[in-house]
Amino acid sequence: MADQQAMDEVVRFTSELIRIDTTNRGGGDCRERPAAEYAAEQLAGAGLEPVLLERTEGRTNVVARVEGTDPAADALLVHGHLDVVPAEAADWSVDPFSGEIRDGVVWGRGAVDMKNMDAMILGVVRSWAREGFRPRRDIVVAFTADEEDSAEDGSGFLADRHSELFEGCTEGVGESGAFTFHDGGGRQIYPIAAGERGTGWLRLSARGRAGHGSKVNRENAVTRLAAAITRIGEHRWPLRLTPTVRAALTELAALYGLDADLDDVDGLLTKLGPAAGLVEATVRNSANPTMLSAGYKVNVIPGEAHAYVDGRYLAGFEDEFRTTLDELTGPDVDWSFHHREVALQAPVDAPTFAAMRAAVEEFAPEGHVVPYCMSGGTDAKQFSRLGITGYGFAPLKLPEGFDYQALFHGVDERVPVEALHFGVKVLDRFLRTA
Questions:
Q1: What span, in angstroms and rounded, lies between the C-alpha atoms of 415 and 317?
Q2: pTM attached to this predicted model
Q3: Which residue positions in the chain have pLDDT lower than 50?
Q4: Which residue in 9, 32, 83, 251 is the catalytic one?
């Protein structure tokens, strides 16, 4: 089991990584190298041989391999990203890059997304080195750049250009899973991600006839675009259940003593109460308009207008997503993928999922583990190009009232010290038995 030093280190590593500002503003505006060098130093201290890799100067990734005892066993990838989303200091209670530890809580950007998991990984492998422990299967550790944007400088670059470092890896674990979800009725649920919706970020373009703002214009590009994004924003996508979501609904229904009526999913979600929040975003495709751009002067009708839409689609339903967008945009608006990544599914009846479930239940016997599908995406999408089946498993035991999901990209991001200790224990248990 992870030792006391690992408990101390996970807190220190989380705090010190937060202090390294790796804000990713998109478009290449980020520098992960200082955090990558920090992680590499800790890995080297565990007797490993980390490799630092860059596609673009300063956008650094770290990969290392822990050799297992069974050379015939498939390898397991454990990954976390080093970049974070921007934080507006004026909105925060503390300096978002202070890594302040106050009242048993570590504060700062990246505390839950996901320098906490990075610190857990470092804490576990260093604990193994002190113990002289080797896992059964090879464990490949990867700390990536650019996850918060396109991943082109991170996991995409690693998958496309350095696949040899992941030789033998058939499964991987990363962010967003095995955290405590309190349902408000005394139940503690631990959702483990076994799927992700696909990413379909769209750019819409409308063209029309430019002209004077005082003249009648039936070919107004802004009007055409506005009509299209209104149709998209108001569209009610049909229910579509993937195997992962079916499993989630079935297990949640059993937990609440309900009939798992998958012919009336909306009715079932209503009966699940707050726990419905774990699945309701993943029973449909979605498309949300997020950005608009048109014109340069109030009395000039522009000849073109543009918008961006955050689209997400379930595994097996990308074709339906595309066809629906064709219909909603209509003949006067064109659309294309600004960024596209695949939807993922992972088996919930696999030994690896069972090992994750057992690890959580050992340290949270009062908890109820269920599978779920992430509404967004992670680096698992890029690593899937290598045939690696991805799960979301970054364990945290959280107190009631601590809204973990709201802190992703939110103000006053923070993580309890006790949650980090739990995470190290669970991650250690899982990796020893996977």
A1: 36
A2: 0.95
A3: none
A4: 83
